[in-house]
Amino acid sequence: MTTLTPDAPAPQTPASRSSVPRSSALRNGWILTQRELLHWVRQPALPIFGLLFSIMLLLMFGFLFGGAIEVPGGGDYITFLLPGMFTLTMLFGLEGTMLAMSTDAAKGITDRFRSMPIHSSAVALGRSGADMASSILNLAVLLGGGLLIGWRITTDIGSALLAVLLLLWLRFALLWIGIFLGLVFRGPGATVAVQVLIWPIGFLSNVFVAPETMPGWLGAVAEWNPISATATATRQLFGNPTGITSGLLPDAALGMAVGWPLLITLVFLPLSARAYRRLRR
What we know:
This protein has one domain. By secondary structure, the chain is an all-alpha fold. The chain has 11 helices and no strands.
C-alpha cells in the first residue's frame, strides 16, 4: 500500500517572483516600508541625529557665517540659505539609504527576502517608501525651523508646493543611487567613502554661496551640479533671492531641476534592479 504525499511547492525563482501582480508588488513594498519605519520607531537615535545635524548646519552657516557673506543681487542671507539647506538635506539622505541596503545585504536579510514569494521589486519599493517618508518628515521640520528663524515664503501656495515636490523629486532620484551602491559595495569602507564624497558634491554647488563668487572654472562646475539646479528652482518658487545675476541657471533652473533627477533615475533605477537580480548569484 502506497501513501500519497502532496507535492512540495515549487521554489520561487526570480522569473516567478517578477510575475506576481503589480498590486501585490505594491502591497509587499508597503509591508517592507512598515518594517523600516518600525525600526526607526524602536531605534530613533539615527533619524533624530540626522535631523539635528541638518539643523546644526543651518544654524551654523546662518548665524555664524551669514553676516560675512553677501548675496549677489541683494537679499538676506538666511532667505538665500534655507532653500539650499533643504536641497542639501535631500543629498545627505543618500548615505542612509546606502547604509541600510548594505547592512541588509551583508546580514543576509536581502537574500531571505529574495527567497520569499514576493515581487522582485518589493525590497526596493519598501526601502524607497521608508526613505521618502523620512525625507518628508525631515523637510517638514526644517521648513518649520526656517520659519521660526525668519525665513519667509513670498509667493503663492501653489509655487511653494511645487518647490517642495522638486525637493522630494531630487530625493527620490538620489535614493536609487544609494540603493545601487548599497547592493554593489557592502564593505564599511565603501560607506565611509560615500560619506566623504557627499561633502564635496554638496559644497561644490550654490547651496552656501553663489557660483559667480567662485573662480570661473569652479563656478561653471557648480552651475552644472544637480544640487544647484534644485536649490535655484526652489529659491525662485519660494520667492527667495537666488544669488544669481547672470549665467545658465536663472532661466533654466526649473527645467534642470526636473531633468537632472529624471536622468539620475533613468540610469540608476535599472542598475539597482540589475544589482538586486545578481545579488549573491
